[in-house]
Amino acid sequence: MGEKKRKEKAKGQFIFGKKNYKFMFIGLAFIALGFILMSGGGSDDPNVFNPEIFSFRRIRLAPTLVLIGFGIQIYAILLNPDKDS
Description:
mainly alpha
């Protein structure tokens, strides 16, 4: 009888709360934005060098956004959804 009650009680619970998922989606948005900003800058002709691949956006901004996104993901996983404040 105790086993049945325990299974019923644990059946409707999620591992993460609503707040966790909100932070996870924010982190995924940061990561996706970082990879989008990192893309491009190549040249169609392999004999022509395009210095745009070394722009501030691709070298500094995009990797920073990706790392911030990963930090938000770690925070979202470790966040306790049951804590009231």
